[in-house]
Known about the structure:
mainly beta
Amino acid sequence: MAKEELLTMEGLIDEIYPDGRFGVMLDNEHRIIAYTAGKMRRFRIRSVVGDRVHVEMTPYDLSKGRIVFRERTPGQGPGSGQRRGFRR
Length: 88
């Protein structure tokens, strides 16, 4: 039996909940609760309110999802001067 295909949607984070969950408003005006994928946690990719994200959902439960990608926002990332002078 083949694995079910996941639905990939785009949306905007509009709320942060405790325990690593986020409220995401999808482009089709549906609101879901999503958590960050393991690779995003491993590489410490932070998500904040207002970020555009890609969410994977199973066709069995369309009210929950997993954030798999955060789109880059201008002025952020390495070389933006945010952590200037930081030494470990």
